[in-house]
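**Protein record**
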Amino acid sequence: MADLNDDKKPDLISGSYTPGDIYWFKAGAQGFEEGQKIPETTPSSIERAASAASCADWDGDGDLDILVGNIAGEVYWLENEGNKAQFKFGSRRALSVAGAPLKVGGGDAHPVAVDWDGDSVLDLLVGCGDGSVLFCKGTPSQSGRAPTLLTKTPLKAGGQPIALGHRVKLFVCDWNEDGQLDLLAGNFNFKEPREYIGNVYVMLRQP
């Protein structure tokens, strides 16, 4: 959910499996309007399948950008080259941790930008195809805009790294209204013969 056109109404942003286009479902008077494919200039040489998208002002310029993962476990940033009311997105640009392109275990990356550690700099949480969730710490870049991602650490629950089956998709909010950000996660599992199971988990942040 994100107010992509600054009309004070939360819109819905969604990736897709193939070819991996990103869609904007504009908030209307009675629910959401039909999805519109978001134009982008990403070349065909970049993997786009199984796009999983979220919005954040990643470069701190006052408008919403898009972060998107793909089936290969890579994470990209689409800079909003327009403005708050009229978006225009450029090509997908790979995000890096400690100078190396970010790639997560099991593929199917789903990135969410949030100030997870409370230092007023956006961090990156990434749901992974192997069922884990990664915390990538952000620090201010020299330009003072887009964060620099310095570390990649598995998030833990109950003292152990999170393991939630496959293809973890994330949402962050203060679920129990205690002033701390909590983690909601959906997953995908399968059993033979062709039985597919999805679960949703709420993981409350400990003081």
In short: The two ends are 27 Å apart (CA to CA).
